[in-house]
């Protein structure tokens, strides 16, 4: 569990610096909305990021005068706010990414008591919602690549410990586990799975640091 | 940036918000635009695109200066956050055009937890003092890894430290941060 928390800290720092790939950025942003100690950590990291901007060696703009003039001549941007979903059960970051609310999801039953909905799938990443019946055990399994799981409702546990609402599990090739949903209610999760290919790519190089590649 | 400079910049933002003061804005632009460009280029953005995005970020300051609250963050942090979110947004637009683009100013930046980070000036001062106790060598690693965009192995080779030491210093810094935030008085 300690190792899991350490990895989460690194993810939060990458979130703040803006270096996470989008689905991971959404997952960590949702976690921050749900878990205030992590939001505090992110707040302090943002202050550091701002400080770092002050010591960044400036790079002159090629046409600063024109840019400045264009800003003064520009119209104020329209105040468009994100679509509001009344009484949504999803964190705002996740809602905006999915573009829909839970009620709109068309679940697929994978196994009795286990529903799945794929939000996005490419050769690098798959994001999905998982719904697990109270007390149901998932089959023992390993992982190809990095898997981040955010518990949205309910809880699950495995040999590492218990993951409640707002907690994030970080799993990789090194981890084999058999997650079991809590008994008190269904367990709803948002999951982001990176293929190993994604971690060797240069843009995601930093993400490899998280799992020590 | 020291407290005086911070206050000075906050005053300039107020002049922009209240009086549409172009001279005040120009001072802010001359300071921040080249630094934001530098940061974006380091984040492997093309210089032209970076400059375009810098203009976008600075235009937010020109039009929305009234939204900046000096009690909640430094101006550097506020602008950094807008730049970061705009950059992610630009990537998102490129990746999937079918998604509704949301307004990051009102959204990622305003995560509920982020509002209540510091409940008062006193607590703020306590946290800052406690943070100052974190050994410089640990914070240096955090800065290099996350804000100067270096990988752990790049830090290892530039400092001559073993990779394991780099990783453990970063880990220790986070441990200290979590502890300080849980209990800033250190009791
Ligand atoms: Zn936990
Ligand atoms: Zn798993």
Automatic annotation (TrEMBL), chain A:
<dbReference type="InterPro" id="IPR014710">
    <property type="entry name" value="RmlC-like_jellyroll"/>
</dbReference>
<protein>
    <submittedName>
        <fullName>Transcriptional activator ChrR</fullName>
    </submittedName>
</protein>
<dbReference type="InterPro" id="IPR025979">
    <property type="entry name" value="ChrR-like_cupin_dom"/>
</dbReference>
<dbReference type="Pfam" id="PF12973">
    <property type="entry name" value="Cupin_7"/>
</dbReference>
<feature type="domain" description="ChrR-like cupin">
    <location>
        <begin position="100"/>
        <end position="191"/>
    </location>
</feature>
<dbReference type="InterPro" id="IPR012807">
    <property type="entry name" value="Anti-sigma_ChrR"/>
</dbReference>
<dbReference type="InterPro" id="IPR011051">
    <property type="entry name" value="RmlC_Cupin_sf"/>
</dbReference>
<dbReference type="InterPro" id="IPR041916">
    <property type="entry name" value="Anti_sigma_zinc_sf"/>
</dbReference>
UniProtKB/TrEMBL annotation, chain B:
<dbReference type="InterPro" id="IPR039425">
    <property type="entry name" value="RNA_pol_sigma-70-like"/>
</dbReference>
<dbReference type="Pfam" id="PF04542">
    <property type="entry name" value="Sigma70_r2"/>
</dbReference>
<keyword id="KW-0731">Sigma factor</keyword>
<dbReference type="Pfam" id="PF08281">
    <property type="entry name" value="Sigma70_r4_2"/>
</dbReference>
<dbReference type="GO" id="GO:0006352">
    <property type="term" value="P:DNA-templated transcription initiation"/>
</dbReference>
<protein>
    <submittedName>
        <fullName>RNA polymerase sigma-70 factor, ECF family</fullName>
    </submittedName>
</protein>
<dbReference type="InterPro" id="IPR036388">
    <property type="entry name" value="WH-like_DNA-bd_sf"/>
</dbReference>
<dbReference type="GO" id="GO:0016987">
    <property type="term" value="F:sigma factor activity"/>
</dbReference>
<feature type="domain" description="RNA polymerase sigma-70 region 2">
    <location>
        <begin position="28"/>
        <end position="95"/>
    </location>
</feature>
<keyword id="KW-0804">Transcription</keyword>
<keyword id="KW-0805">Transcription regulation</keyword>
<dbReference type="InterPro" id="IPR014284">
    <property type="entry name" value="RNA_pol_sigma-70_dom"/>
</dbReference>
<feature type="domain" description="RNA polymerase sigma factor 70 region 4 type 2">
    <location>
        <begin position="126"/>
        <end position="177"/>
    </location>
</feature>
<dbReference type="InterPro" id="IPR013249">
    <property type="entry name" value="RNA_pol_sigma70_r4_t2"/>
</dbReference>
<dbReference type="InterPro" id="IPR013325">
    <property type="entry name" value="RNA_pol_sigma_r2"/>
</dbReference>
<comment type="similarity">
    <text>Belongs to the sigma-70 factor family. ECF subfamily.</text>
</comment>
<dbReference type="InterPro" id="IPR013324">
    <property type="entry name" value="RNA_pol_sigma_r3/r4-like"/>
</dbReference>
<dbReference type="GO" id="GO:0003677">
    <property type="term" value="F:DNA binding"/>
</dbReference>
<dbReference type="InterPro" id="IPR007627">
    <property type="entry name" value="RNA_pol_sigma70_r2"/>
</dbReference>
